[in-house]
């Protein structure tokens, strides 16, 4: 990642059945975030989560485009609500915007690093991250302290 960090704007992956973000750190300076991988949620109900998809907004399509990732929004289909009202058409709901949910000014690696650092002490922020990741499924209740480290989106590369 270090070699191409000025070119790579993000890494985008298909689903792991969860809604995930992984921050990559410099192996020679583990305090320096240098990349972000985005793993979009799935449309399946595997692991009891609601079907979900993500839309990415980029700075592109104009002569001065930077192709920076400006935001991503995740939408989900609340099956509990849809099944309770079978005569009404099901509708996709905005689950969250990354910028709004995590109070980000950009989606640069350093901003995500700051979110990770804040999650270490901010239970409400961490629990929101965990709930979004589980797509409001039955496993989306609060994550215990024992499992918290494994659920935090920080990785070294």
Automatic annotation (TrEMBL):
Compositionally biased region (Polar residues): 138-149
Keyword annotations: Glycoprotein, Hydrolase
A GO BP entry: sphingomyelin catabolic process
Region (Disordered): 138-157
Ranges where the Sphingomyelin phosphodiesterase C-terminal domain occurs: 46-132
Pfam families noted in UniProt: ASMase_C
Molecular function via GO: acid sphingomyelin phosphodiesterase activity
GO cellular component terms, semicolon-separated: extracellular space; lysosome; membrane
PANTHER family linked: SPHINGOMYELIN PHOSPHODIESTERASE
Protein name: Sphingomyelin phosphodiesterase C-terminal domain-containing protein
Organism lineage: Eukaryota, Metazoa, Ecdysozoa, Arthropoda, Chelicerata
């Amino acid at each position: 990642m270090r070699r191409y960090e000025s070119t790579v704007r993000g890494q985008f992956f298909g689903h792991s059945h969860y809604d995930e973000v992984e921050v990559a750190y410099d192996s020679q300076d583990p305090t320096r975030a240098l990349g972000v991988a985005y793993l979009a949620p799935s449309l399946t109900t595997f692991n009891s989560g609601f079907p979900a998809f993500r839309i990415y907004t980029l700075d592109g399509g104009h002569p001065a485009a930077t192709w920076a990732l400006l935001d991503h929004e995740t939408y989900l289909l609340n099956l509990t609500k849809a099944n309770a009202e079978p005569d009404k058409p099901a509708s996709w709901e905005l689950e969250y915007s990354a910028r709004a949910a995590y109070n980000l000014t950009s989606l640069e690696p350093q901003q995500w690093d700051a979110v990770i650092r804040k999650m270490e002490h901010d239970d409400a922020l961490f629990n929101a991250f965990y709930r979004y990741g589980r797509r409001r499924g039955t496993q989306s209740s609060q994550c215990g302290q024992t499992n918290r480290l494994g659920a935090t989106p920080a990785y070294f590369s």
